[in-house]
């Protein structure tokens, strides 16, 4: 029987952070995203409401900004090696997240077999 190993992104693979926080830091809107994160955690915002408001903050978002956010994020040490070991055993790994799919998809290049994330508008 083949096993599937599931990983969560925000606060797990991204140690102590979240994709929207990393993106917002690159755009200089950290304070604003922290308030949205607080409201979301307090269940004052549904996921869709959070996404709409975050997108409004990210009017200057480009693929290059996402690349910088991804590269500079505080990733869990050794995750690529862990995924390589999983694949060597004939098993699979997937990442799940409420974060933007355009950020999470980059983990496919790191060795995740699949990613499932929230659909957000692509960066301009």
UniProtKB/TrEMBL annotation:
InterPro entries: HAD-like_sf, HAD_sf. The keyword Nucleotide-binding does not apply. The keyword Thylakoid does not apply. Pfam families: HAD. One of its GO terms (molecular function) is hydrolase activity. Keywords: Hydrolase. This is HAD family hydrolase. It comes from Streptomyces boncukensis.
């Amino acid at each position: 029987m083949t096993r599937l190993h599931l990983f969560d992104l925000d606060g797990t693979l991204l140690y102590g952070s979240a994709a929207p926080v990393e993106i917002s830091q690159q755009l200089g809107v950290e304070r604003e995203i922290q308030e949205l994160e607080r409201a979301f955690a307090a269940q004052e915002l549904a996921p869709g409401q959070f996404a709409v408001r975050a997108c409004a903050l990210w009017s200057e978002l480009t693929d290059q900004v996402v690349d910088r956010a991804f590269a500079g994020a505080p990733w869990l040490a050794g995750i690529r090696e862990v995924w390589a070991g999983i694949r060597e055993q004939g098993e699979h790994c997937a990442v799940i997240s409420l974060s933007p799919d355009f950020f999470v998809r980059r983990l496919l290049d790191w060795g995740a077999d699949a990613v499932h994330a929230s659909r957000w508008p692509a960066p301009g």
